[in-house]
User: Fold this.
Amino acid sequence: MNSRLDQLHPYPFQKLRELFAGIVPNPGLAHVNLSIGEPKHATPEFIKQALSANMAGLASYPLTQGSEALRQAIAAWCGRRYGVELDPASEILPVNGSREALFAFAQAVVDPTRHKKRVVSPNPFYQIYEGAALLAGATPYYLNTTADNGYRMAWESVPEDLWETVQLVYVCTPGNPTGKVMALEDWKTLFALADQHGFVIASDECYSEIHFDESNPPLGALTAAKQLGRGHRKLVVFNSLSKRSNVPGMRSGFVAGDAEVMQKFLLYRTYHGSAMSPMIQAASAAAWADEAHVVENRRLYAEKFAAVQPVLNGAMRAPMPDAAFYLWAEVPGGDDTAFARELYARKHVTVLPGSFLAREAKGRNPGKGMVRIALVDGLGPCQDAAQRIVEFIREA
Assistant:
């Protein structure tokens, strides 16, 4: 077996199951699960209809590059959303959800012949970045994002000599779990570093369409590059329909950016065997072409944040994020695992300990003392859970 598999850490939800082992939660309370970022809003009917109307596609092998109709739909969406003009033939690639593509991308980018290979990611982070780096034979470099530095990736804190070993930088904006949106000045710094040192930037933007101001959507990497007059060299963006359109089970997203990098990634994927089902492609094209359901989706999330965040923030530090559907909250007493375990036992509410989402770096685990609260359930359950969390804190 591949010895690199032994370097992988248990996934956060496996650790959560182990943390809860042996607990019998309060039987008088219905379970509310706020630990996993799985959208619970209804899938739009027109997407279901597009799926069922295109079942004949199951009789054909799909192309790895995807259909022209889907790539054009994605290009049109990128034009509306990011204000950029992308070539559907060379700068866009449909993928089976951003998760598998984020993992596969490191396998294609990291050069195994180089002696020192590093992949930079935020810390805390989406665990796929770390696993992708390790299985590609690279060493992860964790860049702590905390309240002290405004939850930004402080590029200036990375040692200058380390940049020469970096081959790939993962950015998550809006961030998971912090909800932080990367600012234009930070993009400017990162682009300059990439131009100087030659590494590739992978911008994970799967939460970009969950935000609170219709007139001011989160800044994306492609928009930042355009505003800075840079172009897309060494830059690739990942996005997904899962959160935007409430279709996590469709596993549909895209990768877009530098045509040269995309050409190599397509070659990799041709061998990887990751073509999207034709019926999923047809439904995806319909989803990317419609914004009305996304506006309604944002309204539902905004309603929940308005009802829940002030309640929780009165009992624990739980500030509003820039975007996404998480509250990144500080637990009283500082023990996030004990907080999550006892909350589950006494109030039958599940949250995810922040330390499970981070690694020890520069003498600290930046997730320690924090919990991630995903407002993915309906308004009623989220309000109920918030009240139970407040009661739990006050009873302690």
User: Anything to note?
Assistant: The chain has two domains: 3-42+293-395, 45-290. Residues 292-313 form the longest helix (22 residues). The chain has a mean pLDDT of 97. The radius of gyration is 21 Å.
